[in-house]
C-alpha cells in the first residue's frame, strides 16, 4: 500500500492530468470518473474493504485498512485539485465530511459510554440471570430472547443487544449446538429489525435521522414492517427448537445490580429525550444533547465515587467496594475500532462521491432501475458489504425519491444485513461470542427463510406506507 501511494505522488508530480471537466477557475468540480486517479481511488477502496470483510480470518481490525484507504483517497484528490488550482473545493468537501463524522462520533461515544456504564453496574447480567432462573422452556427462551432483542435494540443499539441476549442463550444452552445456533440467528434478525424503526437502533438509522431525511416520530411507521421481518422467520425457526427446560442457576450466584445502576438507566433515557428535544424543538444537532447527557453521567459518577469512598471507610474488606466507579474507564471501553472504522468509511465514501462515482451509481440505480428496486438492492448489498458505507453512499447521492422510499431504504439497510451472518455487526459479534455454535454456514442454511421475512417486510411497508 505504501508503494502504491508513493507511485501516485511521483506520477502526479511529473505527468499532466487529463480530466473531463474544463480547466477553469469557475469552481466547477473535476469529473475524474474516467481518469486514472479515480481508478486508483476505487482500487484502494476495494482492496481496503476486502480486508475488512475478511477481518475474522486475517485478524486485522477493520479500522486499520479503511483508515489508510481514506487518507490515500484524499491524498490523490488533493494532489489533482492542487494542480488545477482548486484546492479550496477539496478542502470544503473534506471539511463537510469530517463535520458529519464529528457529529456522529460524539453521539455514538456518549451512547457507548452509557451502555458500558450499565454493563459495569451489572444491569444486563442481572437481566440475563433473571431470564435463566425463571424456569422458561427452550422454546420460550427462544421467543423471550428474540422479543427482548427486538425491543431493547431501539434504545441500546443492535450490537450490544445481540451480545446480551447471546449470553443468555449460551448460559442456558448447556452445549446444545442446534438451540444455540438457531437462537443466535433469531437474535440477530430481531436486533436488526428492532433497530430499524429507531434512530438509536443502528448507525444507519442515526445517519438518516441526523441528515433530516426522516423525522424522529416518522421512524415508527417502520414498526409493523420490522415486526413482520422478525416474526416470519421466527415462526418457522421455532420448530427447530427442542423440548425441555434448562437448569436454573445455583442459588447465590445471581448477579445483582450495583449501586446506581438503575439511576444510570434513567439518566440514559433522559439523555435520549434531551437529544431528541435538541433536534426536534431547537433544531440543534442531537450530538449536543447527547453531550449534555454525558455531563449528567459524569456528575452522577462523582457522587458514586464519594459513596464508594464512604463505604470503603466503613467496610474496608467489602469486595463490592474495592474498585471505585470511574467514568473515564467507561469512555475507554467504547468500541474505538468501530468509531475509527466509521471515520474511514465516511471519508473514503465521501472521497469517491467527490470524484463523481456516487453520481454515476445514483443515475443508474435510481434513474434506470427505479427507487423501489434500488432500495431493495441496497438491503441485499448491506448483507454482503456493510450497511454503513452503503447507507452513507445513498445519503451522499441524495437521490430524488418520495418520503416513503426514504423509509423503505432505511428499513432495507437496517434489516438486509440479517440475510448473512457477516451482513451486520450483530452477526459478526455473535460468530465470535458463540464460536462453534453460530457460524456462517449455520446462518446460511436459514437464509431462504430470512429472505422470506425480508420480502414480507418490504411488501407490508409498501402496503401501509405507500411507495
UniProtKB/TrEMBL annotation:
Citrate transporter-like domain segment(s): 51-414
Keywords: Antiport, Ion transport, Membrane, Sodium, Sodium transport, Transmembrane, Transmembrane helix, Transport
InterPro entries: Cit_transptr-like_dom, NhaD-like
GO molecular function annotation: antiporter activity
Pfam families: CitMHS
Domain of life: Bacteria
GO biological process terms held by the UniProt record: sodium ion transport
Record-level GO cellular component terms: membrane
Chain segments annotated as transmembrane: 37-54, 66-84, 104-120, 141-172, 219-241, 262-281, 287-304, 340-364, 376-395, 407-434, 446-464
Compartments, as annotated in UniProt: Membrane
Mode of membrane association: Multi-pass membrane protein
NCBIfam families: NhaD_1
Family classification: Belongs to the NhaD Na(+)/H(+) (TC 2.A.62) antiporter family.
PANTHER family per the UniProt record, alphabetical: SODIUM/PROTON ANTIPORTER 1-RELATED (PTHR43269), SODIUM_PROTON ANTIPORTER 1-RELATED (PTHR43269:SF2)
Protein name, per record: Citrate transporter
Amino acid at each position: 500500500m505504501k508503494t502504491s501511494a508513493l507511485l501516485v505522488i511521483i506520477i502526479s508530480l511529473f505527468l499532466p492530468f487529463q480530466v473531463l471537466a474544463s480547466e477553469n477557475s469557475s469552481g466547477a468540480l473535476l469529473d475524474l470518473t474516467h481518469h486514472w486517479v479515480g481508478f486508483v481511488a476505487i482500487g484502494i477502496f476495494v482492496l481496503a474493504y476486502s480486508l475488512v470483510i475478511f477481518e475474522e480470518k486475517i485478524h486485522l481490525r477493520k479500522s486499520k485498512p479503511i483508515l489508510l484507504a481514506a487518507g490515500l483517497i484524499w491524498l490523490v484528490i488533493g494532489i489533482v485539485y492542487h494542480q488545477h488550482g482548486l484546492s479550496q473545493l477539496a478542502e470544503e468537501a473534506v471539511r463537510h465530511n469530517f463535520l458529519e463524522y464529528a457529529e456522529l462520533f460524539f453521539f455514538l461515544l456518549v451512547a457507548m459510554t452509557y451502555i458500558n456504564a450499565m454493563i459495569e453496574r451489572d444491569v444486563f447480567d442481572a437481566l440475563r440471570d433473571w431470564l435463566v432462573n425463571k424456569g422458561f422452556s427452550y422454546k420460550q427462551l427462544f421467543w423471550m430472547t428474540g422479543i427482548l432483542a427486538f425491543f431493547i435494540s431501539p434504545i441500546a443499539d443492535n450490537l450490544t443487544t445481540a451480545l446480551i441476549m447471546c449470553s443468555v442463550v449460551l448460559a442456558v444452552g448447556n452445549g446444545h449446538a442446534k438451540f444455540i445456533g438457531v437462537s443466535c440467528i433469531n437474535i440477530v434478525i430481531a436486533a436488526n429489525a428492532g433497530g430499524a424503526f429507531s434512530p438509536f437502533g443502528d448507525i444507519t438509522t442515526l445517519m438518516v435521522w441526523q441528515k433530516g431525511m426522516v423525522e424522529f416520530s416518522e421512524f415508527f411507521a417502520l414498526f409493523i414492517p420490522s415486526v413482520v421481518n422478525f416474526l416470519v422467520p421466527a415462526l418457522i425457526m421455532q420448530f427447530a427448537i427442542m423440548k425441555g427446560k434448562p437448569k436454573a442457576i445455583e442459588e447465590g450466584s445471581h448477579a445483582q445490580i450495583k449501586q446506581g445502576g438503575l439511576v444510570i438507566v434513567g439518566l440514559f433515557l433522559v439523555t435520549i429525550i434531551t437529544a431528541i428535544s435538541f433536534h426536534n424543538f431547537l433544531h440543534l444537532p442531537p450530538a449536543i444533547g447527547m453531550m449534555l447527557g454525558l455531563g449528567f453521567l459524569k456528575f452522577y459518577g462523582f457522587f458514586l465515587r464519594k459513596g464508594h469512598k464512604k463505604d470503603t471507610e466503613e467496610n474496608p474488606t467489602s469486595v463490592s467496594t474495592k474498585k471505585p466507579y470511574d467514568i473515564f474507564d467507561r469512555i475507554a471501553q467504547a468500541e474505538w475500532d468501530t468509531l475509527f472504522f466509521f471515520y474511514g468509511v465516511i471519508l473514503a465514501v465521501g472521497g469517491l462521491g467527490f470524484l463523481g462515482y456516487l453520481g454515476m451509481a445514483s443515475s443508474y440505480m435510481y434513474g434506470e432501475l427505479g427507487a423501489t428496486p434500488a432500495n431493495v438492492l441496497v438491503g441485499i448489498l448491506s448483507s454482503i458489504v456493510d450497511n454503513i458505507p452503503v447507507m452513507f453512499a445513498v445519503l451522499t447521492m441524495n437521490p430524488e425519491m418520495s418520503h416513503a422510499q426514504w423509509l423503505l431504504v432505511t428499513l432495507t439497510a437496517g434489516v438486509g444485513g440479517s440475510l448473512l451472518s457477516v451482513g451486520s455487526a450483530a452477526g459478526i459479534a455473535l460468530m465470535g461470542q458463540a464460536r462453534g455454535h453460530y457460524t456462517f454456514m449455520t446462518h446460511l442454511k436459514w437464509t431462504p427463510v430470512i429472505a422470506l421475512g425480508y420480502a414480507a417486510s418490504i411488501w407490508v411497508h409498501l402496503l401501509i406506507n405507500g411507495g
